[in-house]
Amino acid sequence: MIKRILFFKMILVLIIPNVITADPMEISASDGDLYEIINADTLADGTQAHEYILVSTDQTYKMTGTITVKGDFYIQGELDEDDRPPTIQSGVLSDGTTVGTLFVLAGSDAEGVFSDLYLLANATNGAASGTAIEVKGDNVDLYVEGCVFDGWVVFAIAYNGQWDSFWIHDNVFRNMVHPNQQYIGEVLRNTWPGEAYTDTVSMVGNLMIGVNGYAAAPVSKWYMRYFQFDENAVLFTFKNPFFIFNMTEGTMNDNIFYGNYAGGVDRAEDPWWDNLWYPDTSFGVIALQPLNPANAIMFDADGDTATEAGMAAIEAQRDIEISGNECYWPSELTDFWSAYNDTATNWVRTPVWMNDRTVDMFADDEAYPLLVEDDNEVLDEDPGLPEVMLDDILHGTSETGDIGLLDYFMQIRTGTAATDYWGYGHSVVSGDDWIPTWPLPEMVALEWGDYTAVDNEQTLPERFTLEQNFPNPFNPTTEITFTLNQESNITLTIYNMLGQEVKELTSGFTPVGKHTVEWNGKDNLGKSVSTGVYLYSLNNGTQVLTKKMVLMK
């Protein structure tokens, strides 16, 4: 098997074209409090007069209040010659506390874009803020690209609006650990006790390292229409990385999961912990379950949720692919669990890649004909994490004052709460002129983004694949990416739901590798097509791959 070396490249390039348009406001860190500047630029209806570009990378932008916006909101950093993004940091308030949440998107049917920013939770007095971005409006599209989220002790991104969508690409989420609450420190989560259903979450090309909680979790309504989690690296989470077991369509492909669910909490130890309500079949990195009637009606409004046969028909429509993932637990961590279970009153669950319930669902082709699970592997050997990095994470380092994950584990289980942080290369904030270390320590220790053999010689792709288009839903353009494992004569074609050809995007001889094609929403005659669901199909002469996409005007 070709092992995947962890390649990490900071991709700090906004993939949403030209979001900063006419008359943006350039803001320097020396101009003053970012909160006051943007608030002063707020119109009477609560919307912003400008889009914002932050141009300082040698000084930190301070915020002494929460910026609440009621319409579209665009804020973008300008990278320096070393690709360092501008840093936004919570200021220290008069009572010694910090701002709880930096940005709140309160308007409905709005769009928010955050790109090329370093969002730092740690203030100069050592206190940490809770949440970087919160979405409270309904039907909000949030785009987060090329950002670093550092030290957020509650959520990086939170939401409680109905049917919001999130496009989270090429970001770093690091050291999101609460010192005395092992269950928070989440990347993306629906707030509790919110009652919001989730539309779309697309998470692609992100690095998550040292995270207490979830990578993604709609924890209130427990339902998500579409979930894309592709080409991410998730290194050490204390909890299970996902609380998404009622999604109806999605992909979870080509990710690396390393040391996840390290806390291994059992229901007997903590009855309300995220066992997904099935204590005997829960403790997997990947865990699905059948839809309940309330969620099923959201998926298929015309379906019969009152009968077993009707529910079965709805279940059969679920379209989920989980392929090409690699999962690894270092032996020192598994040995630690084993030793703990031999001596402790309460035992911990050793996590599995995919729990029994989920395995059974993917194996049942009659009940779940559209569920695909293929080419996933639990590795016997380390895929490439440097030994010194592993040692720092498990045992801590005096250089930054971090404790190790194993010490944190014992604090949680032998006391009422932990008192220290665990993680990798914590930002130790000092002085008003302090800015984060760049490049980040994990940028030096890891390489991420390419597949290589162990000897670093480039290898050919192993599979013929068609990725989910991005963005999706889209207006007016979207990108379709596919990978060829051998040179082929291919056609990539758009069809409507009646099977009629709309647009042939590309055809002809195409070399091995990854390719991306843009569709502008126009047909073969150059006319714009209407709102609706479309199919895009890739044919290499021997195999045809097809996926859905949504044009929304």
Low-confidence stretches: 1-22, 269-281, 448-460
What structural class should be given to the helix and strand makeup?
A: mainly beta
| Total strand segments | 37
Distance between the termini: 45 Å
Number of domains: 4
What key phrases describe this protein's structure?
31% strand; mainly beta; ten-stranded parallel beta sheet; 4 domains; disordered N terminus
Describe the structure.
This protein is mainly beta and 553 residues long. The protein has four domains: 1-221 and 429-459, no CATH class; 243-385, no CATH class; 387-428, no CATH class; 465-551, Immunoglobulin-like (Sandwich), CATH 2.60.40. Helix content is 12%, strand content 31%. The protein has an eleven-stranded parallel β-sheet with strand order 1-2-5-8-11-14-17-19-21-24-27. Strands 3-6-9-12-15-18-20-22-25-28 form a ten-stranded parallel β-sheet. A hairpin with a 4-residue loop joins strand 36 (532-539) and strand 37 (544-551). The model is unreliable at 1-22, 269-281 and 448-460 (pLDDT under 50).
